[in-house]
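Q: Hi! First time doing this. I have a protein sequence and I read that you can turn it into a structure. Is that right? Here it is:
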Amino acid sequence: MKTFLFYDVETTGLNPAFDQILTFACIRTDLHFREIERQSITIRLREDIVPSSEAFLTHGLTSDELALGINEYEAALKIHKIVNTPETISLGYNSLRFDDVFLRFMFYRNLLDPYSHQYGNGCSRMDVLPITVVYKVFHSACIKWPVAEGKPSLKLDLIACENKLVTTGRAHEAMNDVESVIGLSKQLSQQKDIWNYCLDFFNKTKDEARINRVNSDFHIQGRYFRICIMISLSFGSKVNYLAPVIHLGQSLPYKNQSLWLRLDSEAIPGFGNELNSDDAHVIRKRPGDELIILPALERFWNRMPESSKQFADENLQKIRNEWRKFFEYIQYHLEYKYPYIPDIDPDAALYQDGFFTSQEKKQCELFHKTGNDLKHEILNQIQSHRIKALAIRILDRNYLGNPLATKSTEYQIHKERLRSFLDEHKIKGYRGDVKFNIERGLEELKEIENKITSFDLNQKTIIEWLKEYIKEF
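A: Yes, that's right. Below is the predicted 3D structure, encoded as structure tokens:
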């Protein structure tokens, strides 16, 4: 039986490769939102994590609560089993851009398949936030929409408050947010035609088919292109969350990525400028992800502000006039490959090192099946360098001070680098980012104390604990 698994996570920070999940809450329902079961998992703070004060002030988790949790490896095994239950549709609010990425990296560094919950055993994913944006643009009468600081807001806690959605906990508590998403989904799904239409955006086959059905009416020098409309919260309320886009084609190194160029800008980068891989106007979309594509039909096109439509017309004419530059621009982005990072940290190497090979999967399975008291003894049987590196980290970060730990030099160096203030000791991620360290943790604490003049009792407790924790890290 197909079921929805509504879930939410709270984390130590915003970096999915380096930060960790602290709480995982979920409610499984049938497709009519009738609850089947609920679970909540709390995870102890890892000793190689410098926590973000911003994150802790948001979710309000305390050291006492976390001390009651299980270690990350044990939690990863439990959560992986939950989301991989056959016929599960995992969903949340902004889950595809945030929660699911955290799950993916947690599974990876704990030697579990990072992607199986997306396709295996009839499982799939979706996200209620993009659906909510669709309703806001095309059927705004369905719920009451909150306003924050004079602007429309799609924050879940504000929507829950405005529409009196029934919850049992505090805002930003994982289970509370899960209950809010279910309540919101119930209200949105009352418009069954829109709800069912939106569900198909998260079906990879149907999403691709819809896009492929759009006529390629724009042509230059014998090449034909699709003009469409993309919907995304990131575009903002000023443009009604809509952007006119032109389909550039499929990425050559990454076959599952289609490339789209936003047309609602006064100047398209790359025309008369140096080509840049960081061009924010080129958007990479994967089938069934959170980016929604609609055909440029008049009833959709007219939902955009006049400025967006005018820029689109002007840019399309510019593309026609400067078609050689446009073709060069297309080719550059279609061929672009993410740079190889030679000293990337093992935790962050998911995308760079790719899928586990069949041989590596067998070695992962050996590690999991071996009893905890014997795991360190089978490390020499693991031939893959990355699997062995991750296995050693699992033992050291989850069982430090326990006979199960390997007490590896590499792990001790990793922690020392987090204490260092030197640039050369920063731990590198996959996006040119670095792992949150003591230096950044202390800076953030100072910024918060300067910015916030008064704290409530719980916030004071959290801040004092974080000060002590980071200083003694």
